[in-house]
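Customer escalation, tier 2.

The customer says the design service returned an amino acid string that "doesn't look like it belongs to this structure." They asked us to rerun it and document both sides in this ticket. The original structure tokens are below, unchanged.
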């Protein structure tokens, strides 16, 4: 059974068709990347999976049951980390927010916060506020806050789009390591074709107006992946060219 399934899903908002005939299953532990031009409904797709939007037709299921609202075991990592974090709370305090929301035992919170800060390499910055952290650190912190929920699913909406290339690559590898270690299922939205291939077990390209699935590529690149050797493999370069050709075609 698929962990998440979109079954002939349509979405209309304000009388406008946003998504049509979305039909896809995401398996437990899968890393699914979704790419497409701006306005094709990628973020709406993620919001449907999160239970933040309800389909106009069809249904979205989680472990076989229809999604009717947000769930604790599904966490969202947003692109705009600056707005996602509470500026008046320290790094520790931002992680504590997730633990408070799920009524995590008070006597265990300090230990759990320390574990998560260590996991993302921010142990030395526990008492700093978001504006005292770099963009990469802030995004790490947002990911740690999501992981505090012990999610089975991570929904990631272009989380590295605003970061410099080196920080982006570092966080790509951290997300892959976290997914491998926790067994989390990941739905990853991105504009970056190389990022989609590097991270994914599968890549789906979308067509706009209204948003719909155009083509799906299975990524048979060995894991663990490496920023240099993986990207130099002939299979990677072939996939990049094929995906580029698809996106170029659907944009016109």
């Amino acid at each position: 059974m698929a962990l998440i399934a979109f079954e002939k899903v349509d979405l209309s908002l304000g009388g406008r068709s946003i998504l049509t005939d979305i039909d896809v299953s995401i398996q437990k532990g899968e890393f699914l990347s979704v790419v497409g031009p701006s306005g094709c409904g990628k973020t709406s797709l993620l919001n449907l999976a999160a239970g933040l939007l309800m389909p106009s037709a069809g249904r979205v299921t989680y472990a076989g049951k229809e999604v009717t609202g947000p769930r604790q075991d599904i966490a969202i990592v947003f692109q705009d980390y600056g707005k996602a974090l509470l500026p008046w709370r320290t790094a520790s305090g931002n992680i504590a927010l997730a633990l408070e929301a799920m009524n995590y035992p008070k006597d265990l919170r300090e230990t759990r916060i320390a574990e998560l800060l260590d996991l993302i390499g921010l142990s030395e910055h526990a008492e700093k506020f978001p504006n005292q952290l770099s963009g990469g650190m802030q995004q790490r912190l947002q990911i740690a806050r999501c992981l505090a929920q012990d999610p089975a699913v991570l929904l990631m909406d272009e989380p590295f789009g605003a970061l410099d290339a080196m920080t982006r690559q570092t966080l790509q590898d951290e997300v892959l390591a976290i997914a491998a270690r926790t067994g989390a299922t990941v739905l990853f939205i991105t504009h970056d074709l190389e990022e989609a291939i590097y991270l994914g077990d599968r890549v789906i390209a979308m067509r706009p107006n209204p948003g719909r699935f155009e083509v799906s590529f299975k990524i048979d690149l060995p894991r663990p992946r490496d920023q240099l050797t993986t990207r130099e493999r002939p299979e990677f370069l072939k996939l990049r060219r094929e995906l580029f050709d698809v996106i170029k075609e659907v944009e016109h």
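Tier 2 assessment: The sequence is consistent with the input. Strands lie at 4-13, 16-26, 31-35, 57-62, 65-66, 74-77, 153-157, 185-189, 202-207, 212-218. Residues 165-182 form the longest helix (18 residues). Sent an explanation to the customer and offered a walkthrough call.
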